[in-house]
Amino acid sequence: MAGLIVAVGILSSIPLYADAVQQRLMQGELTEAGTYRPPFSFLWRYIGTWNGNIDRDKYQPIDEYISQQAANTIGLPLSLLVRHVQTDKLRLFPAGDTQSREPLLWMTLGFISGLEDHIQLSEGAFPREGAPGSAPDGDVEVLVSQTLADAQKMSDDYRACVVQNKAESDVKQQRKCIKQVDPSIPNLLIGITE
To answer: Beta strand 90-92 with 84-86: parallel, antiparallel or unpaired?
Structure first.
């Protein structure tokens, strides 16, 4: 009797072990590049640069289907629905600057539904709802990442240093401004030999 119990235990442990290995492999595939998606999650992605941009009239029926009917069609419960929509790359210019030919940066404009529940702001407030440009001054309220805000501050500080020291054509002074803005940059990288 004891031998039968041991034999059944050994035979049933092999499929359980194989199932655990397959589960781990599947989770590894789903967790590529630091992105975690639970098993049976569904991601619908449309990239306009590959297939042509779509407007709101074409987006609306797809959004309604995915948010209202897809869960029943698939037969799985809907625990979370997130929408992420963004534009192609746009050029961002300083406010009021009509002379610049070079943008401050290339960026996208978009939205992520339910973002307020998943991030913590370090400064400022969430943009108010409304149509883009509907603010009295025509501005569009946005959120930017801390990384972008820090990089923009460094860029602004550098520009201010160059203007203050009248270093537009003085490379040596420009290098000193770089060092002033970010002291962690090694002198060798920016050409300071003093």
So the answer is: unpaired
Say whether pLDDT at 29 is over 70.
no
Q: What's the confidence (pLDDT) of residue 179?
A: 82
CB 78 within 8 A of CB 72: no
Is 166 buried (19+), middle (13-18) or exposed (0-12) by CB count in 10 A?
exposed
Going through 8-53 in order, the beta strands assigned E by DSSP cover: none
What's the whole-model pTM score?
Answer: 0.58
Judge residue 165's burial from the number of C-beta atoms within 10 Å of its C-beta, 0-12 exposed, 13-18 middle, 19 or more buried. middle
| Token pair in block for residue 105 | 């940066």
Is 162:171 a contact under the CB 8 Å cutoff? no
Radius of gyration of the chain (CA): 27
